[in-house]
# Entry
Amino acid sequence: MFVVSGKNSLVRLLVGVLVLASVILSQLHHPNWSYFTGFIGFMLIFSSVTGICPMEMMLKKAGVQEKKICDMKTNS
# Structure
């Protein structure tokens, strides 16, 4: 199992998985899946311009807590 250091890392992980999945689906299933990839790109631009990230809002409502990298204990 892997440890995600917080909400921001989880958002990047989920977005990466969604983009990769939509590219694969557009190649294997139907080309219209590329519109989903475009939507994700649009939402990334929207988030950077406005500071509002719907994925972060959904994760917050789901109970995912922000963890700072310094707060994580290391196994020594």
